[in-house]
From TrEMBL:
The keyword Transcription regulation applies. It comes from Kibdelosporangium philippinense. Residues 33-52 bind DNA. Keywords: DNA-binding, Transcription, Transcription regulation. InterPro entries: DNA-bd_HTH_TetR-type_CS, Homeodomain-like_sf, HTH-type_TetR-like_transc_reg, HTH_TetR, Rv0078-like_C. Residues 10-70 form the HTH tetR-type domain. This is TetR family transcriptional regulator. Signal peptide: none annotated. Pfam families: TetR_C_41, TetR_N.
Amino acid sequence: MPRTQQDRSKATKTALINAARPMFAERGYASVSADEIVAAAGLTRGALHHHFKDKQGLFRAVFEQIEAELSDEIATAMDKAQDVQVRMAISLRTFLDACARPEVLRIALQDAPTVLGWETWRAIESEHGLKLINQLMTRAASEGVLAHEPSDVLARFVFSLLVEAVMVIAHAADPAAARTQVELNLGIMMAGLFTTR
């Protein structure tokens, strides 16, 4: 069966994303040229401009793909537990594990806020990581174990705390020791969100 235009368009987008993603992860957005991306994908600059407008548009597509995958990974891990506090602990560990991967750390947390701008980065995060945190807070409140009313502000504070935790680990001289300290202190801080009954 002959491929449709829609099939060809999807294949072209996939080829560009698959070529760009490891380059952005390894070297960062600024050190990767559009020419080398299209060469690696076996395509032309015209294909890049047609489907993504420019390198920044392609970077956004890569970032959104990573965010969707990360959200799915965390949600799948959380589904192993029913207790909301256990689900939160699992989500924290899964997030920290994922952020040890260069593509998540560099693309999603280091380059994306600068390349896309803080507001765009935050809007995309709101559909993924922040959304999961809000869902966990809402569930904890419905089960009567959240010490405070859930709010978008509280969810944003928790998200910011997690991003800072990742950066502490990423920039530590001894990442393994830093991870131990981060998990210990995150546990102490997150425990304050729950009731003691």
